[in-house]
Design a protein that fits this description.
Chain lengths: ~800, ~300
C-alpha cells in the first residue's frame, strides 16, 4: 500500500506540475460529435488542429476536449466513413462546440475513407486493440444469415475458439471466462444463445465494439485476458425509424426515435427464434408445452438534460428456453441494466457515473408430478457502481481516474429433489463477494514523437459471510481434496481478502507520420472464475469467487508492435505485434470433477501456471472496389498444473499454432455487394489414447504416458460467401421511403467436414459375452455441410 | 437429467456429422489389468488378469497366466483363485460358500513372477429392493409409447453409501456405457445430501435399456412379456469414483455433445504394485460387493 500511495502521488505531482503553471493562459475547446442523420454520438472521432499538429479523439460518449493557447484556429472534425467538417474558430475564450458529421452513405458502406487521413492505428498509443463498427460486422458473411458480433471478432488477430459452434472466444491464450464482455458497461456472464451458435447481442442495437487484447488501460479490470467493450446505440434522435429482418433463425425488429427532438431518444430492439413456431405447424409433438426458443430484448433511452448533463438508461433481457413439456425443462439467460450519468464539471473535466446490475441465471425442472421432481437453479448477480473522470489537462496530458465497487451474490445451486414424496434440499451455500478498485492513469504526449499512457489500478476482493467455508487436505496431486475442517462465517465477516496492484503502461514512438513503434505492459487480476471442464463452455457452468482455497488469477502481458500505413488515403494499414503473457493461479480440474451442485467444489479444482506467446500480423486494405483484411496469428498457449500431464507444460484445448483469416469485400457502385471470408486454423490439441483396457466388460481408452493434449486434430479451413442486394432506391421514378436489402449467404462453401474433435469409444452395439469389444475413433464435425441462408432486412 | 441434456443436444445435431477414422497412435508398452469385482454371493467368483493392447487391436485381450491369486479375509481365511483359462482365475463359492459377510474386509494379493500387487476392499451394506413396477408413458417429442421399469429401494440412514445398480432385460445384462447406473446414497454424487431416501427417479429409472432402432429413434425399453432383473451391489466410495470415471470415459454420445465432453484421461485404480520396477504399471479395480436383487415380468394388463 505504501508503494501504491507513492506511485499515485508521483503521478499526480508530475502531471499537475506540468499543467497548473500554464493553466491561466489557456482556453478549452470541447463538445460532442454526432451523426447528422440519427443523432448518434461518434466514438473515436478525431478533432485535429493542423497548425499545431495536435488533436484529440472523442471518448466512448462522443465527447472531446482540447486545451490550447488563445488564438484563431482551423479545426478539423473527422470520422471514418463521414464527411469531414472544418471550422475556423476564434478561441479567445473557452468554447463548447458540438458538431454533426454526415455519413458518406447510410447503408453498409463503412470502408470508404474520406479525403482526410484517419490513422489512429498509428498515432494512437493503444495497441492490441481492434474496433469494429456494425457496418463492418454486417458485411461479414453470416452463419445461417444471422449477423453476429462475437463471430465477427473471431476474424481479428489473436482471437481463437475451441472450434465451430463453441460459445465464447479466446484472446491471446486466455480462457473464455477471462474476457470481460461489457454491454454498455455491464458485464455479460454468458454471451451465447443456443449453446454457442449465436451471441446475445442484437446487431440492430449495437453501435460499436472494441476488443482490447493488450495494453489494457487502468480503467478496466476484473478479467485477465481481454476486454470486449460493446456500446449500444442511443437511438435516433432525429426521426422515428423501424428496422428489422427476417432470417433463418431469428426475426428481428428495432424501433428507435426521438422522445424530444435532439433532447431525448430511445431504441427498443427485439429478436426471437422461430424454429418451434414453425415446427408447431408440422408436428403435434410440441402440443404438451414443449418448446425450444430464444429471444432477447435490448432497450436504451437517453436524455440530454442540458449542455453539462446527459443520462442514459439501457437494459438487456434475454432467455433461451428448452421445455420437454409444460412442467419440465431448462432455461437460461442474462439480464442487465445500466444507468449512466455524463456530467461535465467544466470544459476540461468530464465525468461519468455508472450504476449497473447484471444477472445470469439458469433453471432446470424435471419430473411431472409432485411426488418425484427435481428443481434446480443457479445465479450470479452483481450490483456495481463506477465513477470515472477524465481531466483534459492540456493537449499533452489526459488524466483518467476513478473507481469501481462491485457486490457479487453467487448462488451456485438451489436444488430441491422430491423422491417419492420425500423432500431433500441439496442446495449449495450462497457466497458473497465485495470487489473494489481505484485507478489513475495519464495519457501523455512528449514532443511530437513520444506518447505514453501509464497508470495504476489497485483492486481488492473480499469473500464475506454469512456462509460456511472449508479447509481441505492435501492428497496426491490430481486427486480430490477432502474437507478436514468446516467453519461458519457470520454475516459481513471477511473470510478471505486479496488486494493487488495492477500497473499498466503503453508507449508509442512515432517514426514517421505513417509509422510507429509501440510497447505495452499490463498486469491484470481476476477474482471470480468461470468453472468449466468441458471442451466448450456451456450454460450450466457457474462462476465462483476466490476463496481461502482459490487464489485470484493473475496475468502479466508484455507486447511490442510496429504499425505502418501506406498510401495517401491510408490505403493500407498494417501491423505486427508480438506478445508474451504469463499467468498464475489458472484453474484446471481433477479427472472426474464434480462441478455442479457440489458444496465442496474447491476440492475438485487444481491450480497452475499459464503462458502464452504469439505473433500477430494484420493487413487491411481500406480503399478500392475490393477491400478487406487478412490476419494471421502464430501462437502458443500452455498450462502447467500439478496433477495433469505429469506436471509438464501442455497446450490448452484452444491452442492454435497457425490462425489465418481473411475477409474480402467487393463493393461496386451497384445494388450488389459481395463478401467472402476464409479461415484456416491449425488443428486444436486433443488427448489420444495409446492402449485399450477392459474392465467389467467396458473398453477403456488409456494413455500410457499420462499425457494431456498430446496430438493435434487435422487442419480446419472454411470459405464463406455472401451477397447483399440492396432494394431499389426509387419506385416509379420516385424515391422510396423504405430501405431494404437481402443477404444471401453460403457458410462452408465447399462443404468441408472440418473436425471439431476426435473421440475414442467402443462401438454402439451391445457387447456380447466372450466376443472382444470393438474400439473406434470418431471424428466429429459440428457443421459438416454447406449451410445456405437468406435474410431480408428493412428499414422505414 | 444428463439424458435430458442429451435430448436437447440431439436436436442441434442436425448440422453435425461423424466419420469413423483410424488415426496413428503412439506406441506404448503393455500394462497389467487386474479386473477383480467379487461379491459375497454363493456363486463362482472370477478375477481376470490380462495385458493392455494397442487401442485399435480388436482381438481378445491376452490373459496373464501363472499368477498366484489370493484373497485374504481379515479373519485369516485365504481364498485361492485357480486359473481355469489363460488369465481367468476362479474361486467356487457355490461349492465352498461365500467369501465374506457385510462389513468384512478383504485384501487381494496377486503375484506374477517376482512382482506383487495388492488391493483392499470392505463389504459395505446394501438395501433390499422392495419392489419393481412398470409404467406406461405416451409418445412425446423424444420417445414413442413406452413402458418403463422402476425399482423401489431406500438408502439406509447415514451418508456415504455407494452402489452399482445392474439390470438385466430378459436375462441379458445391460452392459452398455450409457447404462451404467451408480448411486451415492440415494442420489448421483457426493456433496449433495440425499441420504436415507428412496433412490431418486433418475436412478430408479436407470435400470431401463437405452436403445435406438436402425433409424436412430429411441425404442420402448420394455414390451409386454419382457422381464427385468435388478441387482444392487454395494461398492466402496473409491469404486464409485472409478465407475464414474468409466462412465465419463466410455459414454460418448458424440455429435454436438462433443462440445461438452471432458478430456480423455486414465481411469484410476486401487491396485498397488509393491515392487520398485519403474517399467511396471497396473490398472483395474478390486471390490467385494454385497448384493440384493429382485425381478419382475411386464404384464400390460396389470397396469
Amino acid at each position: 500500500m505504501v508503494y501504491l500511495k507513492y506511485v499515485l502521488c508521483l503521478i499526480v505531482v508530475h502531471v499537475l506540475g506540468t499543467s497548473t503553471g500554464l493553466a491561466q493562459e489557456k482556453v478549452t475547446l470541447s463538445g460532442y460529435l454526432f451523426d447528422t442523420s440519427n443523432g448518434e454520438t461518434l466514438i473515436g472521432a478525431t478533432v485535429y488542429i493542423p497548425d499545431l499538429e495536435a488533436g484529440a479523439v472523442t471518448n466512448v460518449y462522443g465527447f472531446y476536449s482540447i486545451t490550447l493557447t488563445p488564438g484563431t484556429y482551423q479545426i478539423e472534425y473527422r470520422y471514418i466513413g463521414y464527411q469531414s467538417v472544418t471550422r475556423n474558430l476564434d478561441l479567445s475564450t473557452s468554447q463548447r462546440v458540438d458538431i454533426e458529421l454526415d455519413s458518406e452513405s447510410k447503408l453498409l458502406q463503412e470502408i470508404v475513407i474520406t479525403d482526410e487521413i484517419v490513422d489512429l492505428n498509428v498515432t494512437g498509443v493503444q495497441m492490441g486493440t481492434n474496433s469494429m463498427t456494425m457496418q463492418t460486422i454486417a458485411s461479414i458473411p453470416p452463419f445461417l444469415g444471422e449477423v453476429d458480433v462475437l463471430k465477427s471478432i473471431q476474424f481479428l488477430p489473436g482471437v481463437s475458439t475451441v472450434g465451430e459452434g463453441a460459445s465464447g472466444f479466446n484472446v491471446r491464450g486466455g480462457g473464455v471466462g477471462q474476457n470481460l464482455v461489457l454491454l454498455d458497461e455491464a458485464p455479460v456472464y454468458n454471451s451465447s444463445h443456443m449453446l454457442g451458435f449465436f451471441s446475445v447481442f442484437n446487431p440492430d442495437a449495437v453501435k460499436d465494439i472494441q476488443l482490447i487484447k493488450g495494453g489494457i488501460p487502468a480503467k478496466y479490470g476484473g478479467r485477465i485476458a481481454s476486454i470486449l467493450d460493446i456500446r449500444m446505440k442511443e437511438g435516433n434522435s432525429k426521426e422515428l425509424n423501424v428496422s428489422g429482418g427476417i432470417g433463418s433463425i431469428f426475426s428481428r425488429v428495432a424501433i428507435e426515435g426521438p422522445l424530444a427532438k435532439d433532447k431525448a431518444s430511445f431504441i427498443v430492439a427485439a429478436r426471437r427464434s422461430y424454429a418451434d413456431a414453425v415446427a408447431k405447424v408440422f408436428t403435434n409433438a410440441l402440443d404438451d408445452g414443449a418448446a425450444l426458443n430464444f429471444y432477447d430484448l435490448t432497450l436504451k433511452t437517453n436524455y440530454n438534460i442540458n449542455k453539462r448533463n446527459r443520462i442514459y438508461l439501457s437494459g438487456y433481457f434475454g432467455r433461451d428456453k428448452f421445455k420437454f413439456d409444460e412442467a419440465q425443462g431448462f432455461n437460461w439467460g442474462n439480464s442487465t441494466a445500466t444507468l449512466r450519468w455524463n456530467h461535465i464539471f467544466n470544459q476540461r473535466l468530464f465525468s461519468n457515473f455508472t450504476a449497473f446490475f447484471s444477472d445470469y441465471d439458469y433453471e432446470l425442472a424435471f419430473g411431472d408430478d409432485e411426488l418425484d421432481k427435481f428443481d434446480w437453479n443457479s445465479r450470479i448477480r452483481t450490483f456495481n457502481f463506477k465513477p470515472e473522470f477524465t481531466y483534459f489537462i492540456n493537449p499533452g496530458n489526459e488524466l483518467s481516474f476513478g473507481g469501481e465497487f462491485i457486490n457479487y451474490d453467487f448462488e451456485p445451486a438451489n436444488a430441491v429433489g422430491v423422491s417419492n414424496g420425500e423432500v431433500s434440499d441439496v442446495s449449495v451455500a450462497r457466497k458473497n463477494g465485495l470487489e473494489w478498485a481505484v485507478y489513475l492513469s495519464n495519457d501523455q504526449k512528449l514532443g511530437s514523437n513520444w506518447r505514453m499512457q501509464y497508470g495504476l489500478r489497485y483492486s481488492n476482493f473480499a469473500l464475506v459471510g454469512p456462509g460456511p467455508y472449508y479447509e481441505f487436505d492435501n492428497p496426491e496431486p490430481g486427486q480430490r481434496r477432502n474437507v478436514i475442517n468446516t467453519f461458519q462465517a457470520d454475516k459481513g465477516e471477511t473470510i478471505e481478502q486479496y488486494g493487488n496492484l495492477e500497473p499498466r503502461a503503453s508507449l508509442r514512438y512515432q517514426i514517421s507520420p505513417a509509422a510507429s513503434l509501440k510497447a505495452s505492459y499490463n498486469r491484470t487480476v481476476q477474482y471470480i472464475h468461470l468453472v468449466s471442464n468441458t471442451t466448450a463452455s456451456n450454460p450450466l457452468d457457474i462462476w465462483t469467487p476466490s476463496t481461502n482455497n482459490i487464489e485470484p488469477q493473475k496475468a502479466d502481458q508484455w507486447s511490442i508492435g510496429y504499425f505502418k500505413n501506406y498510401g495517401a488515403q491510408v490505403n493500407f494499414e498494417t501491423s505486427v505485434e508480438l506478445y508474451y503473457r504469463q499467468a498464475r493461479n489458472q484453474i484446471d480440474y481433477i479427472d472426474g470433477a464434480d462441478l455442479l451442485i457440489n458444496e465442496y467444489i474447491e476440492g475438485d479444482l487444481l491450480s497452475g501456471d499459464g503462458r502464452a506467446y504469439g505473433l500477430e500480423l494484420y493487413v487491411k486494405k481500406n480503399t478500392g472496389l475490393i477491400n478487406g483484411w487478412i490476419s494471421y496469428t502464430l501462437a502458443r498457449t500452455e498450462l502447467k498444473v500439478n496433477g495433469i500431464n505429469n506436471y509438464q507444460w501442455y497446450p490448452t484445448r484452444y491452442d492454435q499454432t497457425h490462425n489465418l483469416k481473411a475477409a474480402v469485400f467487393y463493393d461496386p457502385e451497384s445494388r450488389w455487394k459481395l463478401s467472402a471470408n476464409f479461415t484456416m486454423l491449425s488443428g486444436t490439441p486433443s488427448t489420444f489414447p495409446t492402449s485399450r483396457l477392459e474392465v467389467q466388460g467396458y473398453l477403456l481408452p488409456y494413455n500410457y504416458y499420462n499425457s494431456r493434449n498430446n496430438v493435434r486434430i487435422p487442419l480446419f479451413h472454411r470459405l464463406d460467401l455472401s451477397a447483399t442486394l440492396t432494394g431499389r432506391k426509387t419506385r416509379k421514378g420516385r424515391a422510396r421511403k423504405n430501405e431494404d436489402y437481402w443477404i444471401f449467404s453460403i457458410y462452408n462453401v465447399y462443404g468441408r467436414r472440418n473436425p471439431f474433435s476426435i473421440y475414442f469409444s467402443q462401438t454402439d452395439d451391445r457387447p456380447m459375452p466372450g466376443v472382444p469389444i470393438e474400439s473406434q475413433a470418431t471424428q466429429v464435425s459440428i457443421i459438416g455441410s454447406i449451410v445456405p441462408a437468406i435474410s431480408y432486412n428493412f428499414k422505414f | 437429467m444428463r439424458k435430458a441434456f442429451l435430448y436437447l443436444i440431439g436436436i442441434l445435431s442436425i448440422l453435425s456429422c461423424e466419420d469413423q477414422i483410424t488415426p496413428d497412435l503412439e506406441d506404448a508398452p503393455a500394462i497389467l489389468i487386474i479386473d477383480a469385482f467379487l461379491t459375497n454371493q454363493d456363486s463362482v467368483q472370477t478375477i481376470r488378469i490380462a495385458q493392455s493392447q494397442p487401442y485399435f487391436d480388436n482381438s481378445a485381450l491376452q490373459g496373464v497366466s501363472g499368477a498366484t491369486v489370493l484373497v485374504n479375509h481379515i479373519d485369516g481365511t485365504v481364498y485361492e483363485f485357480v486359473e481355469v483359462a489363460p488369465g481367468y482365475y476362479r474361486y467356487d463359492a457355490l461349492a465352498n460358500g461365500s467369501i465374506a459377510r457385510i462389513q468384512d474386509s478383504l485384501t487381494l494379493q496377486v503375484t506374477i513372477g517376482e512382482d506383487l500387487f495388492q488391493a483392499g476392499s470392505r463389504v459395505n451394506r446394501v438395501p433390499n429392493i422392495d419392489s419393481i413396477t412398470f409404467r406406461f408413458e405416451e409418445e412425446n417429442l423424444f420417445l414413442p409409447d413406452s413402458y418403463f421399469a422402476e425399482f423401489w429401494s431406500r438408502d439406509p440412514l447415514g451418508p456415504g453409501d455407494t452402489y452399482w445398480i445392474k439390470s438385466y432385460k430378459n436375462g441379458q445384462y445391460l452392459n452398455q456405457p450409457n447404462e451404467i447406473n451408480i448411486a451415492y446414497d440415494a442420489g448421483f454424487s457426493e456433496g449433495g445430501d440425499v441420504d436415507g431416501l428412496i433412490f431418486i427417479p433418475p436412478i430408479r429409472d436407470g435400470i431401463n435399456p437405452f436403445e435406438e432402432d436402425e433409424n436412430d429413434d429411441f425404442v420402448s425399453p420394455f414390451e409386454d412379456g419382457d422381464s427385468v432383473y435388478v441387482e444392487i451391489h454395494s461398492i466402496s466410495n473409491e469404486t464409485f469414483r472409478f465407475l464414474n470415471d468409466v462412465r465419463i470415459q466410455t459414454d460418448r454420445p458424440g455429435g454436438f455433445a462433443e462440445l461438452f465432453s471432458v478430456p480423455l484421461s486414465n481411469v484410476r485404480s486401487n491396485i498397488i504394485y509393491r515392487g520398485t520396477d519403474p517399467e511396471i504399471a497396473v490398472a483395474g479395480f478390486f471390490n467385494v460387493a454385497a448384493v440384493t436383487g429382485a425381478g419382475k415380468r411386464l404384464d400390460v394388463t396389470d397396469l
